[in-house]
Write a structure and sequence with these properties.
single chain; mainly alpha; 5 helices
């Protein structure tokens, strides 16, 4: 012991709550759109269709986000079986965030023209996906570290 306080507990709590909050916010927005809501719908433009709609239906994205919200809760309970699914979700979220930024900047000419609202949304949404990936990854690392220390 070095006498320094162990910050893993509070950090894990903050990261877990942040990851759950972002997942539920995303699930709520997706559910709203799946039910026919139009607010902010035009802000996603072509990029969101390119990055998500071909793989999952609107309700599939809602379910995926709810499952992603449950991962930090399970990791906090030290359910080791959730480590691999958590890292898969981290990878998907990071890919979504980075690909959105790439489409916004260096690969802009490869996609159809986007509205100003879509540009703004991409500049906001992509970093949020990266933040979500970072928070979930932090929870996974701290849960793994915690489990290793208990042995």
């Amino acid at each position: 012991m070095t006498g320094e306080p162990d910050l893993r507990g509070p950090l894990a709590t903050i990261a877990s709550q942040g990851a759950v909050a972002l997942a539920l916010l995303y699930a709520s927005l997706r559910a709203y759109w799946a039910l026919g809501g139009q607010t902010l719908r035009d802000s996603v433009g072509v990029t969101e269709h390119v990055l998500s709609d071909p793989w999952l239906s609107p309700w599939g994205l809602v379910v995926a986000a709810v499952v992603a919200a449950l991962l930090p809760l399970g990791l906090a309970r030290r359910w080791r079986a959730l480590q691999v699914p958590a890292w898969i979700v981290v990878l998907v979220l990071a890919l979504r965030g980075f690909s959105g930024l790439l489409l916004l900047y260096p690969l802009r000419d490869l996609v159809p023209p986007m509205s100003g609202a879509a540009d703004l949304a991409l500049a906001v949404y992509s970093p949020v996906f990266l933040l979500w990936a970072f928070l979930l990854g932090t929870v996974a690392v701290l849960a793994r570290t915690d489990a290793a220390n208990e042995r």
